[in-house]
Amino acid sequence: MQALRTYLADFISLIFPQLCPACNSSLMANENILCTDCLYNLPYTNFHQQHDNIVAQQFWGKLPIEAGYALYYFNKGGKVQNLVHQFKYNGMQQIGNLLGSIAGKQLAQNPVFKTADYIIPVPLHKKRLKTRGYNQSACFADGLAEPLNTKVELDNLVRTVATNTQTHKSRFARYQNMQEVFAVARPEVLENKHVLLVDDIITTGSTLEACGIELLKVPGLKLSIATIAYAE
Protein backbone atom coordinates (compact mmCIF):
# COMPACT_ATOMS: atom_id res chain seq x y z
CA MET A 1 0.00 0.00 0.00
CA GLN A 2 2.81 2.39 0.92
CA ALA A 3 4.56 1.59 -2.36
CA LEU A 4 1.36 2.45 -4.24
CA ARG A 5 1.07 5.81 -2.46
CA THR A 6 4.68 6.59 -3.29
CA TYR A 7 4.12 5.63 -6.92
CA LEU A 8 1.00 7.82 -7.17
CA ALA A 9 2.79 10.76 -5.52
CA ASP A 10 5.70 10.42 -7.93
CA PHE A 11 3.32 10.17 -10.89
CA ILE A 12 1.40 13.30 -9.83
CA SER A 13 4.61 15.23 -9.25
CA LEU A 14 5.77 14.23 -12.72
CA ILE A 15 2.65 15.72 -14.31
CA PHE A 16 2.24 18.64 -11.87
CA PRO A 17 5.74 19.24 -10.50
CA GLN A 18 6.20 21.41 -7.45
CA LEU A 19 8.69 24.15 -8.20
CA CYS A 20 11.18 25.87 -5.94
CA PRO A 21 9.93 29.48 -5.58
CA ALA A 22 13.50 30.80 -5.61
CA CYS A 23 15.03 29.10 -8.68
CA ASN A 24 11.95 27.55 -10.33
CA SER A 25 13.50 24.08 -10.51
CA SER A 26 11.39 20.98 -9.81
CA LEU A 27 11.42 19.82 -6.20
CA MET A 28 12.51 16.28 -5.42
CA ALA A 29 10.34 14.01 -3.28
CA ASN A 30 12.34 14.75 -0.12
CA GLU A 31 12.41 18.54 -0.64
CA ASN A 32 9.92 20.91 0.99
CA ILE A 33 9.20 24.42 -0.39
CA LEU A 34 12.86 25.17 -1.24
CA CYS A 35 15.18 22.95 -3.24
CA THR A 36 18.27 21.73 -1.41
CA ASP A 37 20.59 23.95 -3.43
CA CYS A 38 18.63 27.11 -2.55
CA LEU A 39 18.16 26.06 1.06
CA TYR A 40 21.92 25.98 1.57
CA ASN A 41 23.22 28.42 -1.03
CA LEU A 42 20.94 31.47 -0.99
CA PRO A 43 22.92 34.61 -0.01
CA TYR A 44 22.84 34.37 3.79
CA THR A 45 24.13 37.46 5.59
CA ASN A 46 25.15 35.80 8.89
CA PHE A 47 24.31 39.12 10.56
CA HIS A 48 23.40 37.23 13.75
CA GLN A 49 27.17 36.85 14.22
CA GLN A 50 27.92 40.55 13.63
CA HIS A 51 26.67 43.06 16.19
CA ASP A 52 27.56 46.14 14.12
CA ASN A 53 26.19 44.82 10.83
CA ILE A 54 24.68 46.91 8.03
CA VAL A 55 21.11 46.63 9.33
CA ALA A 56 22.11 47.81 12.81
CA GLN A 57 24.17 50.66 11.33
CA GLN A 58 21.17 51.84 9.31
CA PHE A 59 19.48 52.94 12.54
CA TRP A 60 22.45 54.58 14.23
CA GLY A 61 21.43 58.07 15.29
CA LYS A 62 17.78 57.32 14.45
CA LEU A 63 16.61 54.55 16.79
CA PRO A 64 18.33 53.13 19.88
CA ILE A 65 17.97 49.47 18.93
CA GLU A 66 19.53 46.53 20.76
CA ALA A 67 20.35 44.57 17.59
CA GLY A 68 19.55 44.40 13.87
CA TYR A 69 19.40 41.46 11.46
CA ALA A 70 18.42 40.27 7.99
CA LEU A 71 18.44 36.64 6.86
CA TYR A 72 19.44 37.19 3.21
CA TYR A 73 20.93 39.76 0.88
CA PHE A 74 18.36 40.98 -1.67
CA ASN A 75 19.54 41.65 -5.22
CA LYS A 76 17.23 42.78 -8.02
CA GLY A 77 16.45 39.87 -10.33
CA GLY A 78 18.00 37.37 -7.93
CA LYS A 79 16.62 34.26 -6.27
CA VAL A 80 15.70 36.05 -3.05
CA GLN A 81 13.58 38.50 -5.03
CA ASN A 82 11.80 35.57 -6.69
CA LEU A 83 11.25 33.99 -3.29
CA VAL A 84 9.86 37.14 -1.67
CA HIS A 85 7.62 37.84 -4.68
CA GLN A 86 6.05 34.38 -4.49
CA PHE A 87 5.59 34.78 -0.76
CA LYS A 88 4.22 38.31 -0.83
CA TYR A 89 2.04 38.34 -3.93
CA ASN A 90 1.24 34.74 -4.90
CA GLY A 91 -0.21 33.50 -1.64
CA MET A 92 2.65 31.20 -0.59
CA GLN A 93 2.40 31.94 3.12
CA GLN A 94 4.33 28.77 3.94
CA ILE A 95 7.48 30.47 2.60
CA GLY A 96 7.29 33.02 5.41
CA ASN A 97 6.93 30.32 8.05
CA LEU A 98 9.93 28.43 6.66
CA LEU A 99 12.15 31.50 6.45
CA GLY A 100 11.08 32.52 9.94
CA SER A 101 12.10 29.11 11.24
CA ILE A 102 15.50 29.33 9.51
CA ALA A 103 16.07 32.86 10.83
CA GLY A 104 14.86 31.92 14.31
CA LYS A 105 17.43 29.14 14.58
CA GLN A 106 20.16 31.62 13.72
CA LEU A 107 18.87 34.25 16.14
CA ALA A 108 18.60 31.70 18.93
CA GLN A 109 22.42 31.58 18.81
CA ASN A 110 22.58 35.30 19.63
CA PRO A 111 22.19 36.23 23.33
CA VAL A 112 20.53 39.57 22.52
CA PHE A 113 17.77 38.19 20.32
CA LYS A 114 17.17 35.31 22.73
CA THR A 115 15.88 37.80 25.32
CA ALA A 116 12.98 39.03 23.14
CA ASP A 117 9.67 38.93 25.03
CA TYR A 118 7.47 39.59 21.99
CA ILE A 119 7.73 39.49 18.22
CA ILE A 120 5.72 42.22 16.49
CA PRO A 121 5.27 42.22 12.70
CA VAL A 122 5.02 45.49 10.79
CA PRO A 123 1.24 45.78 10.34
CA LEU A 124 -0.72 46.19 7.13
CA HIS A 125 -3.63 48.59 6.96
CA LYS A 126 -6.95 46.72 7.24
CA LYS A 127 -7.79 47.53 3.60
CA ARG A 128 -4.49 46.09 2.33
CA LEU A 129 -4.89 43.08 4.63
CA LYS A 130 -8.36 42.40 3.25
CA THR A 131 -7.09 42.59 -0.33
CA ARG A 132 -4.01 40.39 0.20
CA GLY A 133 -5.60 38.06 2.72
CA TYR A 134 -2.57 37.84 5.02
CA ASN A 135 0.29 39.89 6.42
CA GLN A 136 3.59 38.53 5.09
CA SER A 137 5.49 39.93 8.08
CA ALA A 138 3.15 38.05 10.44
CA CYS A 139 3.91 34.78 8.60
CA PHE A 140 7.63 35.42 9.11
CA ALA A 141 6.98 36.26 12.78
CA ASP A 142 5.09 32.99 13.29
CA GLY A 143 8.08 31.05 11.98
CA LEU A 144 10.44 32.93 14.31
CA ALA A 145 8.40 32.32 17.45
CA GLU A 146 9.12 28.64 18.11
CA PRO A 147 12.93 28.63 17.79
CA LEU A 148 13.10 31.82 19.87
CA ASN A 149 10.61 30.43 22.39
CA THR A 150 8.61 33.65 22.44
CA LYS A 151 5.20 34.99 21.45
CA VAL A 152 3.88 36.96 18.49
CA GLU A 153 1.96 40.07 19.55
CA LEU A 154 -0.61 40.94 16.88
CA ASP A 155 -2.97 43.94 16.71
CA ASN A 156 -1.03 46.00 19.24
CA LEU A 157 1.09 47.93 16.78
CA VAL A 158 -1.49 49.16 14.26
CA ARG A 159 -1.33 51.02 10.96
CA THR A 160 -3.81 53.89 11.17
CA VAL A 161 -3.23 55.32 7.68
CA ALA A 162 -3.33 53.48 4.35
CA THR A 163 -0.17 54.67 2.56
CA ASN A 164 0.82 54.28 -1.07
CA THR A 165 3.49 51.79 -2.10
CA GLN A 166 7.05 52.72 -1.16
CA THR A 167 8.66 50.93 -4.12
CA HIS A 168 9.43 53.87 -6.41
CA LYS A 169 9.82 56.61 -3.79
CA SER A 170 13.08 58.33 -2.88
CA ARG A 171 14.58 57.90 0.59
CA PHE A 172 13.16 61.24 1.79
CA ALA A 173 9.74 60.58 0.21
CA ARG A 174 9.60 57.20 1.96
CA TYR A 175 10.38 58.88 5.26
CA GLN A 176 7.65 61.49 4.75
CA ASN A 177 5.18 58.82 3.65
CA MET A 178 5.59 56.99 6.97
CA GLN A 179 5.06 59.91 9.34
CA GLU A 180 2.25 59.40 11.89
CA VAL A 181 1.13 56.17 10.24
CA PHE A 182 1.46 53.78 13.21
CA ALA A 183 0.18 53.66 16.78
CA VAL A 184 0.45 51.35 19.79
CA ALA A 185 -3.00 50.20 20.94
CA ARG A 186 -2.07 48.59 24.30
CA PRO A 187 1.22 50.09 25.53
CA GLU A 188 0.84 48.60 29.02
CA VAL A 189 1.42 45.10 27.55
CA LEU A 190 4.83 46.16 26.22
CA GLU A 191 6.15 48.13 29.20
CA ASN A 192 9.69 47.06 30.16
CA LYS A 193 9.68 44.37 27.46
CA HIS A 194 12.16 43.54 24.71
CA VAL A 195 10.32 43.66 21.36
CA LEU A 196 11.58 42.13 18.13
CA LEU A 197 10.07 44.14 15.27
CA VAL A 198 10.00 42.22 11.98
CA ASP A 199 9.39 43.00 8.31
CA ASP A 200 10.03 41.35 4.95
CA ILE A 201 12.64 43.58 3.27
CA ILE A 202 14.65 46.51 4.59
CA THR A 203 15.72 49.13 2.06
CA THR A 204 15.84 52.65 3.52
CA GLY A 205 14.43 51.47 6.84
CA SER A 206 11.79 54.23 6.90
CA THR A 207 8.87 51.90 7.69
CA LEU A 208 10.74 50.16 10.50
CA GLU A 209 11.93 53.53 11.82
CA ALA A 210 8.37 54.87 11.93
CA CYS A 211 7.20 51.74 13.78
CA GLY A 212 10.16 51.93 16.14
CA ILE A 213 9.50 55.56 17.04
CA GLU A 214 6.00 54.64 18.22
CA LEU A 215 7.10 51.51 20.07
CA LEU A 216 9.88 53.33 21.90
CA LYS A 217 7.33 55.72 23.39
CA VAL A 218 6.35 52.81 25.65
CA PRO A 219 8.14 53.13 29.02
CA GLY A 220 11.10 50.78 29.41
CA LEU A 221 10.70 49.13 26.01
CA LYS A 222 13.83 47.74 24.31
CA LEU A 223 13.77 47.24 20.55
CA SER A 224 15.48 44.90 18.10
CA ILE A 225 14.81 44.49 14.38
CA ALA A 226 14.82 41.47 12.05
CA THR A 227 13.89 41.13 8.38
CA ILE A 228 13.91 38.44 5.72
CA ALA A 229 16.24 40.38 3.44
CA TYR A 230 18.44 43.44 3.22
CA ALA A 231 18.36 45.25 -0.13
CA GLU A 232 21.89 46.28 -1.07
Describe what is shown at a glance.
This protein is 40% helix and 18% strand.
Task: Please describe what this structure looks like.
- Belongs to the ComF/GntX family.
- The protein has 232 residues and is an alpha/beta fold.
- It folds into two domains: 41 residues, no CATH class; 190 residues, 3-Layer(aba) Sandwich (Rossmann fold).
- Helix content is 40%, strand content 18%.
- Helix 4 crosses helix 5 and helix 5 runs parallel beside helix 7.
- The N terminus is likely disordered.
Rg over CA atoms, rounded to whole Å, is 19 Å
The structure class reads: alpha/beta
C-alpha end-to-end distance: 51 Å
User: Architecture of the largest domain in CATH?
Assistant: 3-Layer(aba) Sandwich
Main sheet strand line-up: 1-7-6-2-3
Q: Give the biggest beta sheet.
A: 5 strands, parallel
Number of strand segments: 7
Give the helix tally. 10
Sum up the overall morphology in one term.
globular
Q: Give the topology string: H per helix, E per strand.
A: HHHEHHEHHEEHEHEHE
CATH top-level class of the largest domain: Alpha Beta
Residue runs with pLDDT of under 50 for 5 or more positions: 3-15
Q: What percent of the residues sit in helical stretches (DSSP H or I)?
A: 25-40%
Mean pLDDT: 89
CATH topology of the largest domain: Rossmann fold
